[in-house]
Amino acid sequence: MKLFYKCTAAITAILLIALVSGCARLNDGVILAGSTSVQPFAEILAEEYYLLHPEKIVDVQGGGSSAGISAAQSGTADIGMSSRRLKENESALWSVEIAKDSLAIIVHPQNPVNDLTMEQLRDIYSGKIGNWSELGGHDAKIHIIAREAGSGTRSSFTDMVMGDVRISPKALIQNSNGAIRLLVADDQNAVGFISSGILDHTVKPVSLDGVLPTGENIVSGDYKLFRPFLFVCQAEPTGETKAFIDFTLSSHGQRILAGEGLIPVAKGVIEP
Amino acid sequence: MDKNMKAKPRIGDKAAKAVIWTAALLVIAVLVCIILYVLAKGLPVISWSFLTEVPRNMGREGGVASTIVSTLLVTFTAIVIATPLGIGTAFYLAEYTKEGIITRIIRFSAESLAGIPSIVYGLFGFVFFVEILGMGWSVLSGGLTLAIMILPTVIRTSEEAIITVPKSYREVSFSLGGTKWQTIFRAVFPSAIRGITNGVILSVGRCVAETAAVYLTLGSTLRMPTSLFSPGRSMAVHFYLLASEDISMENAYGTAALLIILIFLINVVANTAVNRMIAKNAKR
Amino acid sequence: MIKFKEKLSGRIFFALALSSISVLALITVFIVVKGAPMLGAVGGLSWDPEYGEFGIIPMVIGTLAVTLGAAVIGVPVGICCAIFLAEFAPLKMRNIFRPAIQLLAGIPSVVYGFWGLMFIVPFIRDHLGGAGLSILAGSVVLAIMILPTIISISEVALLSLPPHYKTGSLALGLTHWQTIYHLMLPAAKSGIMAAVILGIGRAVGETMAVILVLGNAVAIPDSILSSVRTLTTSIGIEMGYAEGMHQEALFATGIVLFVMIMIINSLAQYVVRKK
Prior knowledge:
The complex is a heterotrimer.
Chain A: H1 2-21, E1 30-34, H2 39-52, E2 58-63, H3 65-74, E3 79-82, E4 94-107, E5 115-116, H4 118-126, E6 143-146, H5 152-162, E7 172-173, H6 177-186, E8 190-195, E9 204-205, E10 207-208, H7 215-220, E11 226-233, H8 239-249, H9 251-259, E12 263-264
Parallel strand pairs in A: 1-2, 1-3, 5-10, 6-7, 6-8
Antiparallel strand pairs in A: 3-11, 4-8, 4-9, 4-11, 4-12
Chain B: H1 2-42, H2 48-52, E1 55-56, E2 61-62, H3 65-96, H4 101-113, H5 118-132, H6 139-163, H7 167-175, H8 180-209, H9 212-217, H10 235-244, H11 249-283
Antiparallel strand pairs in B: 1-2
Chain C: H1 2-35, E1 47-48, E2 53-54, H2 57-88, H3 91-106, H4 109-118, H5 120-127, H6 135-159, H7 163-171, H8 176-187, H9 189-205, H10 208-214, H11 231-238, H12 244-274
Antiparallel strand pairs in C: 1-2
Helix pairs in contact in C: 1-12, 2-6, 2-9, 3-6, 4-6, 4-10, 6-9, 6-10, 7-8, 9-12, 11-12
C-alpha cells in the first residue's frame, strides 16, 4: 500500500522535474545529430577531439538526416549531420561539406559479370534488363536491391545514375549498408550499392565504365559515384560549435576521415 | 454405443495431446536455435573489459559499459512511470466504472495503439519531449516515450488479470465488511498479481529490446550517462548501429548476447519475487 | 479515516486513468494532425516519393498478407503452447519454459531480423526460389515474434480459471482434453482473444525485424514468395530520412494503419461477443 503512494509521489516528482526543466537545455557542449551513415565518422572525430580537448564535451546522436536537420533548425542540436543534399525549403540553413563517400556497385563474388556501363546499370535498376544473361552472366533473374526513398545514398544514386528514369517498383529495398552487403554476399543473382568504405571479400565490386572504386580512382575523381556528407547549422556557427567544425575541416580531421575510406574535401590531405 | 462414446474421446485426447506436445517442442526448438545462434556468436566476445569499458573507435574497440547503464536507466524510468499508471488505469476500468461505452472506447484504443509501430512513438517523443519540452535527447525523454509505448500493454494485461479474478472473491470480501479499497488490495490484487507482473515483465522486455523509439529520444551518444538528463545509447541501439552499418559484427553479437543474459536475469528475479509473493499470500 | 481513504483511493485511480488516457489521446492527435494533410493523396497504386507519388494500396495488401501469414502460423502454435504450459507440461519443464518464453519477448527485433536474414531467407531462396526476401519469410519471423505475447497472456488466462471448473468436469467423467476444449478454453476466451489481438497488433506494428526479411518492394505481390512492403515497414524504413510531404504521407500511412488495426480489433471483438 505504502509502495503505491510512494510510486505515485515518484511519478509526480518526475513529471514536475520534467516540466520545470522544460525551459532550459541542460546539456552544454556540442551536440551533433542526424544521418546514421555519418554518425560513426562523427564519433571518431569526437573521440579524437576529446583527446585534444578533454574539457570539451561532444555528443553524437543519430536519428536520420531529417531528424538531424530538424534538430539543427530548432536548436536541439548544434550540428545536424546529413548524407543528402539540402532540400529547397531547408536552404536557409548554413551547411558545409565535410567529406564525400563513394558508392560501390556490388555483386556476388561468383558472378562472372565484372564491368557495367552507366547505361547498363540504369537499365538494370529500371527493370529493362532483367536477366544476367543479357550482361554476359548466367541465365538467372537479376535481384536488384536499392536503398529507401529519402536516403542520401539513394538520392545520390538517382542523381548520378538514373537521371530521369525511375527505379523499378519491384526493386528490393533495404535501409542499411550492412544488410545489403549481407544479402549480396548470400545471393548469386543480387546486385546492390553500398558505401565503398565497408567493401570486403564477401562481395565483389564491379567497375563502372571500366573504373573500379579503388582508393586511387576515388581520390583522383575518376570514379564518379559518391554522396556528400554535410554538417548543417541553424546559422553561421560560433564558439564551441565552430571550433569542432574547424577541427573536422583541418588537415588532422580530414586525415582521420580519409583513414576511414572517405574522400576528404580539403585538397592535399592525403597523397593518392 | 456405450463403447464408442468412451473410445472416441480417448483417441481425441491422444491426438490433441500429440499436437500440443509437437507445438511446444517446435517452439522450444526455435527458441533454442535463436538463443544458441546469438550466444554462440556473442559469448566469445564477452570479457571483463567488454563489460566495464566504454566503446571506442565507433564501437569496434572497447566495451559496452555505457550502453548497459543507459539501457537499465531508461528501462527503469519507463517502468516506474508506466506501471502505476497502467495498473491504476486497469483497476479504475475494471473496478470503478460500469462496463459501458467509455470503458469500451478506452480498451479499444489501448489495443489499437499497441499496434502502432514504435518508430511513431519515437517521432512523437522526439517532437514532444526532445524538441517542444526541450528535454533534449535524455534518459528522461527516452523513459517517457517508452512508458507511453508500453502503457497499452500494461493496461490491457492488468485489466484482463483483474477481470478474471472470480466474483466470489469480491463478494466474500464485501460480506465480511471490507471496503472497496480493502477488497481491491486484499482480495483482488493478490489474485491478479501473476497476470499483472506477466504484463509488466513483457513490457520490460519490450523496453530493453526497443530500438527505433529509443534511438530517437534517448539518443545514441557513446558517453556514460550521469543523470536523468544525460543522453545515452541503449544496447539494442548499439547492436542495430554496429550490425546495420557493419561496423563490427563481433561486438554487435556480443552486445546481443549480453542483452539476452540481462533479460534472463530480470525475468528470473521478477518470477522469483512473484512466486514468493504468491506463496506468502497463500499462507495467510 | 476509512471514508477518507476510500474517497482518496477512488480519486487516485481516476487521476491515473485520466492521465494515461490523455497521454494516449495526445499521441493519437499527434499522428492525425501530422498525417491529415496528405490523407487524400495516399489512395494510389504507386509509391515513389522522389516523383511525388504516395499511393499505399500495395502496402495495405502487403500488411494484410504478412499479418495473416503470421497469425496462421503463430496463433495455433501459441495457443497450443499455452495449453501445454497450463495443463500438460511437467512442473520442471514449465519452470524452464515459462522464463524462456519471456526471454523471447526481450530479444531486440533487429536480432530476429538478422537471424531471419541468415537462416530463413537463404532457406527460402535455395529451396523455394525467388530472392528469399518474401511474404513467407516475414510471416515466419513475425510468427516467432508474437509467440511470447500470445503464449504468456493465454497461459495466464487458463491458469486464472477457478480450480473447480476442472475438478467438477473431471468428476463428471469428461476426459482431460474434453475438459480443456469444452470448458476451459471457452471460459478463458476473453483472455485468449486479448492475447491474440495483442499478438496480431504486435505483428502489424513490428517494424525492425521485418524490414530486413520482407524486401520492402512497393509492388502488388503475386505469390507468397514475392517481396512486399507493409505499412509499418514503410514508416520504419523511410521516416528517418523523410521531410515535407514525404513525411506527412508517412504519417498518413500511420493513420491508415491505425484504422486498419481498429478494424481488426472490432472484428475480433465482434467474433468474441457473437460466440
